[in-house]
Specification:
The complex is a heterodimer.
Chain A lengths: L3 E4 L2 E4 L5 E7 L5 E8 L3 E8 L6 E2 L7 E3 L5 E6 L8 E8 L8 E2 L3 E5 L1
Parallel strand pairs in A: 2-11
Antiparallel strand pairs in A: 1-3, 3-8, 4-5, 4-9, 5-6, 7-8, 9-10, 9-11
Chain B lengths: L2 E4 L4 E4 L4 E3 L1 E4 L5 E7 L5 E7 L5 E4 L2 E4 L9 E3 L8 E8 L6 E3 L3 E6 L1
Parallel strand pairs in B: 2-12
Antiparallel strand pairs in B: 1-4, 3-9, 5-6, 5-10, 7-8, 8-9, 10-11, 10-12
Classes of the chains: A mainly beta, B mainly beta.
């Protein structure tokens, strides 16, 4: 099993450009999450999904959109990137209804100039 | 609301020293508590967890005890190694919510 994978690993954008980050998991997990990690702020939840076709806002959703068309994939979109979105983005997944661990991907480092 | 407070780092120790990283929480109800570790350039990995009061989580020589009376979940290790150098995150989740609330992380640097 590959676990949770993220594409791409690194990306540099100019202000106003758009991009999509892909998260894929092969563990058949129902719940998936997108976080951003910024120095001194820990991880903050952007959006999450409790199943295929469902999404919900997290703590810091503004400027991002998500889609969960397939159970194994969770996409994070930036329609018009801003320098404030420079961050490291992590995807995670978990089995429904348990206290099991969230499995994290390796992260995507995004720089917006 | 729910929140987690961790001691600020970095924590700098020599190899074989004793480690404590403090974590306190605020939550309604009975949260589950976690410690995650992030090695350089990697994602987070679960280190240990405790799901009810007085539970002790342990893994790789690390321990933490869920103290409801002091709302704490301090991470300890008796003898750290250089390979323990990483960022450690305390986190909680509430029953039925499946969403983690993280602390800001504490960087540990262990020198030979």
């Amino acid at each position: 099993n590959a676990g949770v994978t993220q594409t791409p690993k690194f990306r540099v954008l100019k202000t106003g450009q758009s991009m999509t980050l892909l998260c894929a998991q092969d563990m058949n997990h129902e719940y998936m999450y997108w976080y951003r990690q910024d120095p001194g702020m820990g991880l903050r939840l952007i959006h999450y999904s409790v199943g295929e076709g469902t999404t919900a806002k997290g703590e810091v959703p503004d400027g991002y959109n998500v889609s969960r068309l397939k159970k194994q994939n969770f996409l994070l979109g930036l329609e018009s990137a801003a320098p404030s979105q420079t961050s490291v983005y992590f995807c995670a997944s978990i089995e429904q209804g348990s206290y099991n661990e969230q499995f994290f991907g390796p992260g995507t480092r995004l720089t917006v100039l | 609301g729910n929140s987690v407070t961790q001691m600020e780092g970095p924590v700098t120790l020599s190899e074989e020293a004793f480690l404590t990283i403090n974590c306190t929480y605020t939550a309604t109800g009975y949260p589950s508590l976690f410690w995650y570790v992030q090695y350089p350039g990697e994602g987070l990995q679960l280190l240990l967890k405790a799901t009810k009061a007085d539970d002790k989580g342990s893994n790789k020589g690390f321990e933490a005890t869920y103290r409801k009376e002091t709302t704490s979940f301090h991470l300890e290790k008796g003898s750290v190694q250089v390979s323990d150098s990483a960022v450690y995150f305390c986190a909680l989740t509430r029953t039925g919510f499946q969403k983690l609330v993280f602390g800001t992380g504490t960087r540990l640097l262990v020198s030979p």
